[in-house]
Design brief:
Layout (H helix, E strand, L loop, with lengths): L3 E5 L14 E5 L3 E7 L14 H18 L7 E8 L5 H15 L8 E5 L10 E8 L1
Parallel strand pairs: 4-5
Antiparallel strand pairs: 1-2, 3-6, 4-6
Length: about 140
């Protein structure tokens, strides 16, 4: 059974304040819970020290690799949770999503995303982490 994923915005909630959708309704036989991905390469090196855009690219490349390892892709994502260490990066994160999400989600249905500002991540050089749930 392939996942039946319906991503939508109820009229009563109004438009989202960014590139996300309010609700994902899912019927699936299996879910993937992907740990928060950081901007580390496969050798454990930090990619993009002090470069937020480079870290975003690496984080989403890591997420894509995790999805592909389970024969899934961006269309299987039902929710993101994003953690950032400084509120100053919010605008750059929104710019990244405006640029990249139309390529990742060509149907324009962006999964729900909760954005949290935290004191720090597991290591000081990391600026952003994204946890993901997907349905297959």
């Amino acid at each position: 059974m392939a996942a039946d994923i319906n991503i939508y915005n109820p009229d009563e909630l109004g438009a989202p304040m960014g590139q996300y959708t309010h609700i994902t309704r899912v019927k699936a036989s299996e879910f993937l819970f992907i740990a928060g991905m950081l901007a580390g390469d496969k050798d454990g090196n930090v990619v993009g020290v002090r470069d937020f855009q480079a870290q975003c690219r690496q984080v989403f490349a890591n997420l894509h690799a995790a999805l592909r390892s389970a024969d899934a892709d961006w269309g299987n994502v039902v929710q993101f949770t994003t953690y950032m260490v400084h509120e100053q990066w919010i605008e750059e994160f929104m710019e990244f999503r405006l640029r990249e999400f139309p390529k990742m989600f060509p149907d324009g249905k962006y999964p729900p995303n909760t954005l949290l500002i935290v004191d720090r991540l597991v290591q000081e050089p990391f600026l952003v982490e994204v946890q993901t749930i997907a349905a297959v």
